[in-house]
Amino acid sequence: MREYQVLALELAPVLRQAPPFIAQVHRLLGIVEVYSRDDLKAGALEFIPMERILKNALELEKASTASLGHQDYVVKALLAWFKNDFFQWVNKPECLLCHNTDQAKITSLGATKSSEEEHRRAQATTTEIYKCQQCHSTYRYPRNNDPLVVLEQHNGRCGEWCNGFMALLHAMEIPARYIWNAEDHVWCEYYSASQKRWIHLDSCENAFDEPLLYARGWGKKMSFVFAVSETLIVDVSAKYIDPEHQIPKQSKCDVRLLGKCVRMFNAGKWLAYNAKLTDLFLDYEEARLDEFYTKVLRPHYEEVAQLKGPSVATKTEELKPRETGAGEWTELRGESGK
Ligand SMILES: [Zn+2]
């Protein structure tokens, strides 16, 4: 048994007694593993109109005066295509029988546990039920989790948007991580080679490097924001929440205990990643350490320093209210910028 497997076993009883919020954070750890599967990357690539994305990226690059690299323009072009021409936001989904999309003629009947078939097909765990007032049929909308199924359907809410976009970034070998907010929103980030930092991306909003969009733009109050990659889980709250919109962290859990647990989670993730690198480089110890240092440790410590610095969450750019989601729905969530 390898070290990280031993650690996982030791962690299990601790987690069984951990407060619910810490258990919830722990469940995030495995969420990104799926994206590094080769079959998934190959499948996801099929959805990208590559020629068009690269052409648009070149045009953006020519027109821009910013000091970004080519990779950054590729991400911008991918993001714009994803939002404007590919993915669709769903409030109440289209009737499967008569294709009615009139929101006033569709009634939500709540949600239920997904059927075995729905779970087998796309790892759905929750299925929403709707009644069409036009043809009187009742139909199901499983909240699918399999990234390829999500790309195939190319619609959903922030979960599906983030899931689909993460799959595309990974397919293009752009380092990406999953960003989870405790107040029910998800988005992602990619690691910019030119900027040498993680850059905020929200595919629902076509938002690029606007980390204060939620707090200042939507007026969203938040407690925690975590970033999850293959190698790390990091508390990036300081990047996304300004003091005015910070829900006290202590109201969610014992912050010191959480910090301790996150360090344990990361030890497990690093051991697992090192085991993978050891398999990759066999006995080239130097190559393994170099890879680990340049890809994981150095960016991590740079980020930790940035997160502690005074410049985080103080920018004052123009931020817009939420674009996706029906008005009533965003107001309920306190995100309309009002
Ligand atoms: Zn219908």
List the helices and strands and how they pair.
Blueprint: H1 3-16, H2 20-27, H3 38-45, H4 50-63, H5 70-86, E1 88-89, E2 106-113, H6 116-122, E3 126-132, E4 138-142, H7 147-153, E5 155-156, H8 158-171, E6 176-181, E7 185-192, E8 197-202, E9 207-208, H9 213-217, E10 225-228, E11 233-235, H10 237-240, H11 255-281, H12 285-308, H13 327-332
Helix pairs in contact: 1-11, 3-8, 4-5, 7-8, 11-12
Round the mean pLDDT to the nearest integer and report it: 89
Instruction: Give the amount of beta strand, in percent.
Output: 15-25%
The count of DSSP E runs of length 2 or more, i.e. the number of strands, is 11
Tell me the major beta sheet.
6 strands, antiparallel
Helical residues, percent: 40-55%
The level-1 CATH class of the largest domain: Alpha Beta
**pLDDT under 50 segments (min length 5)?**
none
Shape annotation: globular
Order of helices and strands: HHHHHEEHEEHEHEEEEHEEHHHH
Integer tally of domains = 2
Distance between the termini: 54 Å
CATH level 3 topology of the largest domain: C8orf32 fold
Bound ligands, each once? zinc ion
- Rounded radius of gyration (Å): 21 Å
Oligomer description: single chain
Using the 3D structure, state the CATH architecture of the largest domain.
Roll
Structural class: alpha+beta
Counting H and I runs of at least 4 residues, what is the number of helices? 13
Strand order of the largest sheet: 9-8-7-6-10-11
Protein name: Peptide:N-glycanase 1
GO molecular function: metal ion binding; peptide-N4-(N-acetyl-beta-glucosaminyl)asparagine amidase activity
Biased composition (Basic and acidic residues): 315-338
Domain Transglutaminase-like: 150-205
